[in-house]
Write a structure and sequence with these properties.
The chain is α/β, with parallel strands linked by helices and 413 residues long. The protein has 14 helices and 12 strands. β5, α7 and β6 form a beta-alpha-beta unit. It is globular, with a radius of gyration of 22 Å. The N and C termini lie far apart (45 Å). It binds pyridoxal-5'-phosphate (PLP).
């Protein structure tokens, strides 16, 4: 689990913001899509990349393995799991594809998911359905639920004897609603349904303990709210699922024990640390041939950065900014699309936009004013949404800029 900084005094947020690399001409309200970098994290990944550039063989064979193991241990502790369960991936899309393509499901049957899943991930499951003879079904989420139990109940009603897999986001992309992941997994388990969780937004936004959620497969991104370099995602393999997946890429990890390169030690079991910074079981899934995995190696720097600020302090600041956003944007007449109930939202707050608005025009109007914020088009009931992301470096002044400019942007759209 995430460790805390020793002091209980909250940091000075303006000083903390000055440690971020941010374009000063932009009102940045879209961490939900892509996280910017703290200077310290950028410096760390750049230093690692310099080593790679200067001596690639020395880097891959000798320098990187201990750094990779350290990153795996640090990341596993941060996420609340063990290094032996943690597969690094380029992003959450890769992690979900690894699970979806590697699983062999009993057909006929169905893949069940909420009606608020990330579009590309729905396509991923569509393809699994087509290839394995399963149907894909969505169930409606009570998006403005006031109690997590309503969401669990909606899911319980949706599961049928045909359901093979339940797929859901821990934090919904369009609205930032936080789903009760542990309870959903517990219910699915009782009914014999496999769970795959898309935790794209959860690490660092929520106080996460992945093992306690008990998903069969928990995936996530470290390059959103943790502020690690782009290219850092992961899969945590839940107990009982260790031998269920096949890799997306067959490479040297496929027969991990056969061809050690360089001066590596042979491991002594599928979960023993090997000479590559992995275990044979992890490397089987993770190793894709030569590639730039420096973002994974810089994850400890990202963990250090927010540990120093204090994850609790960061989340308290985010909660303040969420309340401010609800008030200020609410005051210009937009209705909330994210529940205000504590525990059901995190660092994203969405608002319903009038359905008469042309989304492409609105995006242009906002960006003409250098406001970076997504306008999200969805099918009913949330047809058109504006999603505000607020991390610790977001300022009240930025939210004020949005509130001031938005009415004119809406009129022009
Ligand atoms: C819920 C959810 N899943 C998946 C993704 C895809 O993330 P990535 O492009 O890093 O794989 C996103 C991106 O915003 C997301 O919000």
């Amino acid at each position: 689990m995430q460790s805390e900084r020793p002091s209980s005094t909250p940091p000075d947020w303006s000083t903390a913001r000055s440690r971020m690399i941010l374009d000063p001409t932009v009102t940045m309200l879209n961490t939900g899509s892509f996280g910017p970098l703290p200077q310290a994290v950028f410096d760390r990944v750049t230093a690692i990349r310099h080593c790679l550039a200067a001596g690639p063989t020395d880097f891959y064979v000798r320098q990187a393995p201990p750094l990779l193991w350290e990153a795996r241990e640090r990341t596993a502790t941060f996420l609340g799991t063990t290094p032996q369960r943690l597969v690094f991936t380029t992003n959450v899309s890769a992690a979900i594809n690894l699970v979806a393509s590697g699983l062999k499901l009993n057909s006929p049957g169905e893949i069940l998911m909420t009606d608020h899943e990330y579009g590309a991930m729905m396509w991923c499951w569509d393809r699994v359905g087509q290839r394995q003879g399963l149907s894909v079904r969505t169930f409606p989420l009570p998006t403005m639920a006031t109690d997590p139990g309503e969401i669990v109940e909606a899911m319980r009603r949706a599961i049928t004897p045909r359901t093979r897999v339940l797929f859901f986001s821990h934090v919904l992309s369009p609205t930032g609603l936080v789903l009760p992941a542990k309870e959903l997994c517990a219910e699915a388990r009782k009914l014999g349904v496999l769970t795959v969780v898309d935790g794209a937004h959860a690490p660092a936004m929520l106080p996460l303990n992945v093992d306690s959620i008990r998903a069969d497969f928990y995936t996530g991104n470290l390059h959103k709210w943790l502020l690690a370099p782009s290219g850092a995602g992961f899969l945590v393999i839940g107990p009982g699922n260790e031998d269920r997946l096949q890799p997306l890429h067959v490479s040297w990890g496929y027969h991990a024990d056969k061809y050690p390169i360089g001066e590596v030690t042979r491991s002594t079991g599928p979960d023993a640390r090997d000479g590559y910074g992995s275990t044979p079981r992890i490397r089987f899934l993770e190793f894709e041939g030569t590639r730039d995995f420096c973002p994974w190696l810089a994850v400890p720097a990202a963990i250090d950065f927010q540990t120093e600020l204090g994850f609790d302090a960061v989340r308290a600041r985010i909660a303040e900014l969420a309340a401010y956003t609800r008030k200020v944007i609410g005051d210009i007449g937009l209705s909330l699309a994210t529940p205000a109930t504590p525990g059901m939202h995190g660092a994203m707050t969405a608002f319903n936009l009038p359905t008469t608005v042309n989304p492409a025009k609105l995006r242009r109007e906002l960006w003409n004013r250098r406001i970076e914020i997504p306008v999200i088009e969805r099918e009913r009931p949330d047809r058109l949404l504006l999603r505000v992301s607020h991390h610790f470096y977001t300022t009240e002044a930025e939210i004020d800029i949005l509130a001031t400019e938005l009415p004119a942007c809406l009129r022009a759209s």
